[in-house]
Structures are given as C-alpha cells and as structure tokens.
Write a structure and sequence with these properties.
The chain is mostly helical. The chain has a single domain (about 30-145), classed as Cytochrome c/b562 (Four Helix Bundle (Hemerythrin (Met), subunit A), Up-down Bundle), CATH 1.20.120.10. Helices cover about 70% and strands about 0% of the residues. It is built from six helices and no strands. Helix 2 (about 30-50) runs antiparallel to helix 3 (about 60-75), helix 2 runs antiparallel to helix 6 and helix 5 (about 100-120) packs antiparallel against helix 6.
C-alpha cells in the first residue's frame, strides 16, 4: 500500500513539474499573468474615472485605486520577457524589435502612474488631469506595441 501511495505521489509530482516547465518554456503563463495585471490596471483606471466624473459616490476609494496603479507601474517592464509574444497575445513583436522605444514608453507610463498615485487624494479636477496624462501614456504604448482590437 505504501509503495502504491509513493508511486502515485511521484507520478503526480512529475506531471506537475513537467507541466510547470512546459508553461514556463512556452511563456503561456507569463502572457496570462501579463493579461491579468493589465486587466487589473484597467479596472483601477475605470474606477478612478468613474469617481472623478462623479458617476459613483466613492471619493474615498480614489487614493486606493491610484496607489494600486503606482504599485503596478513598476511591474510593467518585467511583464514582457523575450519570446512572450506571439499570435495568442496582444503583444506585438515591435516590443522586442524596438526595445529602446518600448522601454521609453514604459518609463513614461511609470512616471504618469506615480503622478496618479500622488494625485489620488486630489479633487476631481486634479484626478482628471492626472488621468489625461496617464491615458496619453497608455495610448503611446498601445498604439505602437499592442495588437489592435478587432
């Protein structure tokens, strides 16, 4: 009985390790993680926009959303390792072909996200100004490095 349990556990562990390695080699897990982080950022941006426009009465939440954007800003550059693009992602090859331009676009977003975090407690006009700047940096990256929505 003990041998059977040990054998089953060994097979399960081997399957897990092989599956993990296959995901890591194919960058599928990285692309999925990247997508989740980007979706979280989009959620925070949408929430701040709704607050700043007076569409929802949650002004006290703005700083939390802004702080989250500032925190995720430092992650962006790490989310695009070489080889993590492809047909199954929105990442264009121009990310790696124009690595210098992409790095500059990421740095602009990081600066704007940090400014957004600092503006988190501002009035609606201050939030809207910070949002406009952040939106420009999002577009600056998506226009050149993201597959267009179909």
């Amino acid at each position: 009985m003990q041998t059977r349990i040990t054998l089953t556990a060994t097979i399960a562990l081997a399957g897990f390790l092989l599956g993990t390695q296959a995901g890591a080699d194919g960058h599928g897990d990285t692309a999925n993680y990247r997508s989740a982080v980007m979706s979280a950022m989009a959620g925070h941006i949408s929430s701040i926009s709704a607050i700043a426009r007076g569409r929802v009465p949650f002004e006290s939440h703005a700083s939390g959303h802004a702080t989250a954007l500032g925190a995720t800003a430092d992650m962006i550059g790490d989310l695009f390792p070489e080889g993590s693009g492809g047909d199954d992602t929105d990442a264009l090859d121009s990310i790696w072909e124009d690595a210098e331009g992409f790095a500059a676009a990421v740095a602009a977003y990081e600066d704007a996200a940090r400014a957004m975090a600092e503006a988190g407690g501002a009035d609606s006009q201050g939030l809207m100004r910070a949002m406009a700047n952040l939106g420009r940096t999002c577009s600056g990256c998506h226009d050149n490095y993201r597959r267009p929505d179909e």
